[in-house]
Amino acid sequence: MPRAAATSDIFNAVAEPRRREILTYLAPREQSVGDIAAALRLAQPSVSKHLKVLRDVNLVQVRRVGKARYYRTHAAALRPLREWAATFERHWQHQLTRIKEIAEDSERRGLSSPGSSSPGSSR
After folding, report:
1. What 3-state class would DSSP assign to 17?
2. CATH architecture of the domain with residue range 10-75
3. I need a labelling partner for 70 at 20 to 30 A (CA). Which of 12, 30, 88, 99 fits?
């Protein structure tokens, strides 16, 4: 079954690693197409195509100054991605809790992690 067009929704748009890389690069501040291309070592036409896809799904916003265009991540539009990922947060939290319990149990039984000293030993 063919995948939906990248411009159909944000999930398809961010499925492409280069677009995720661009979003990450734009997260702290807006940048021009040339700055993005140089920083990520991509051809300018390729960056422009990726930015168009990201614009089409509202993940980036553009500000024009003369002929220059400056892009920034539209953080509010990322909410559906965050909400989807949050669905799995309880699983991650469960795993972290389990790791903590195992470590604490090992410590109580006098087992220490490699490279650490056990209680009462001197280094």
Report:
1. helix
2. Orthogonal Bundle (1.10)
3. 12
> Is this prediction's pTM over 0.90?
no
The average pLDDT across 93-120 equals 70
In the chain, where the domains are located: 10-75, 79-108
- 13-49 residue pLDDT tens: 999 999 999 999 999 999 999 999 999 999 999 999 9
Q: Cα torsion at 26, 80, 51, 3 (round to 10°)?
A: 140
Q: What is the DSSP letter of 118?
A: P
How many whole angstroms from its chain centre is CA 46? 20
> Percent of the chain, pLDDT > 70?
84
Buried b or exposed e, range 70-89, using 16+ CB within 10 angstroms: bbebbeeebeeeeeeeeeee
CA–CA gap between residue 76 and residue 89 (Å, rounded): 20
User: Looking at residue 15, what is its pLDDT?
Assistant: 94
How far apart are alpha carbons 11 and 85 in whole angstroms? 11
Pairing verdict, β 31-32 and 60-65: unpaired
